Amino acid sequence: MIPRTPRVAVLLNGNAKRVNARVRDAFAHLVPEADLFFSRSMDDAAAFSRTIIEQRYGQVMLGGGDGTIAATLNALLEASDDLSSADGRHALPDIAVLRLGTGNGLGYLSGAGKPMQDAMRLLSGELPGSQVLRLVKVADSGRVSGGLVTPFGSLGYDAQVLNDHLHVVNQSRGRVSKALAKSLGGYFYALGTRTVRAELNAPRTAITVTARGRASIVDPRTDEEIPLDPNGVLFDGTARSVSFGTSPFYGFGLRALPFARRRSDRFHVRVSMASVAFLLTHLRSLWKGTLRTPDFVDFLVEGARIECDRPLPGQLAGDAIGTRASLTLDLSEHSFRLIDGTGPRH
Q: Which 3 state secondary structure label does DSSP give 262?
């Protein structure tokens, strides 16, 4: 491995919800100019990620939502692959999450606090604790290529909510209404006005989930892990959603995948047959990750293949990816160290 330097980079998504002029000015006064990067596009993020790898930064603070962070992790991995040579592979930087986006599921995982407070601590030379962040590698026959990694994703109604929320945001006019649309209230507005109605009218979907490698099922009454046959069929029936990930949290602290951190060598796959109405009536326990029902079937896997009899809405790291009838998932061979923030760990 080509070693890193002690330098700290700050990469902010200039389009993120909370990266306004005041935040930009504050970081410009705090961070050396050469170490501060504002991206406005995927091309910017790719170019800046290559610079971060080339200059061997030891740590990088990422400001934006989960989709921005996942896209940057992919860009860093791609840059590291491109720059690998006979002399070795560039070591990946440690990642600190600055809560400057809309969802910030990874911020809940890391315990991200106030962005400036987290930044000042790291720039002062303090060495906070960290945890390993494994990722899921996703492939399908469509736009998503085999090299993409993500901390979480899904097919089904939770992805439909994201699509509906995006529609609500895009239809909003004016700064105040758009800010409200991007809030948690905007999600529930999209859920109530669009997702529930679409779900009631949607046909039932036949879904098959097959293990790729070793797998186990989680007992819904005891949370005990029970080994299954490798490469076997995990689920074959009608369902409304299949979610997966190595991080428990969706945006706003929703613990959608409560077993995602149980094992470092596997990720969580949850098949849901529960209706949207049922979930809404159990919202508190759903949000905390404590809801147990026969309509949830939970697996811990090294990899999985999801096949549906019709295309379903999809999302990776909170970003909509259109519709997919299949996804192939594997635990990525690459991982990052996720730096602890100054806020509470959930």
A: coil
* Residue 184, both tokens: 């948690």
Distance in angstroms (rounded) separating the CA atoms of residues 214 and 200? 36
Predicted pLDDT of residue 73: 96
φ/ψ (deg, to 5) at 197: -65, -45
Q: What is the pLDDT of residue 203?
A: 82
Nearest-10 Cα torsion for 320, 326, 330, 331 = 30
* Structure tokens given for 281: 């009536």
What is the mean pLDDT for each group of 10 consecutive residues in the chain (346 residues)?
Answer: 86 84 92 94 92 95 92 94 77 94 89 95 92 93 62 91 73 65 71 75 90 97 96 97 97 93 97 91 94 97 97 92 94 96 86
The contacts of residue 241 (CB under 8 Å, 6+ apart) are: 154, 155, 156, 157, 158, 159, 270, 271, 272
Q: How far apart are CA 174 and CA 113, in angstroms?
A: 29
Q: What is the reported pLDDT for 154? A: 96
Give ranges for CATH 3.40.50.10330 in the chain: 8-128
Sign (positive or negative) of CA dihedral 232, 271, 305, 107? negative
For residue 116, what are the CA distances in angstroms to 31, 42, 102, 189, 305?
11, 25, 17, 31, 41
Q: Using the Cα atoms of residue 111, residue 113, residue 117 and residue 118 in order, give the sign of their dihedral.
A: positive
- pLDDT at residue 145, as a whole number: 44
Burial 248-269 (b: 16+ CB within 10 A, else e): bbbbebbbbbbbbbbbeebbbb
Is the domain spanning 136-333 CATH 2.60.200.40? The answer is yes
The CATH 2.60.200.40 domain(s) of the chain lie at 136-333
Helix (H, G, I), strand (E, B) or coil at 70: helix
pLDDT given at position 48: 96
Q: Which of 104, 92, 102, 65 shows the shortest CA–CA distance to 9? A: 92
Give the fold, CATH level 3, of 8-128: Rossmann fold (3.40.50)
